[in-house]
Amino acid sequence: MSVIDCDYLPADKVMFPPELALLIVRKAAAMAEAFESQALDQLTKDARRALSQGSEPRQIIREMRL
User: What are the distances in angstroms from CA 26 to CA 6, 20, 21, 22, 38?
Assistant: First the structure.
């Protein structure tokens, strides 16, 4: 039996409603925006802390892999 002929693959196609797809895309975009905002805040906070502790900007860039 080949991989394509396996019994666990769905036999029939499911119609995916366009409205549902749109709502999923919107939700994913909102989640990505929130994550981006949190990541930006955290990276800025970490960089400021390192600068206040006397780290050189080049060292911070290297450590943060920027």
Answer: 35, 10, 9, 6, 19
- Side-chain half-sphere exposure of 47, counting CA atoms within 13 A: 15
Phi, psi of 8 (to 5 degrees): -80, -5
- Does the pTM of the predicted model rise above 0.70? no
| Contact criterion met (CB below 8 Å) for 64 and 47 | yes
- Residues 66 and 54: their CA atoms lie apart, in Å, by 19
Nearest C-alpha neighbor of 51 from the set 65, 40, 63: 63
- Tell whether the model's pLDDT for residue 32 goes beyond 90: yes
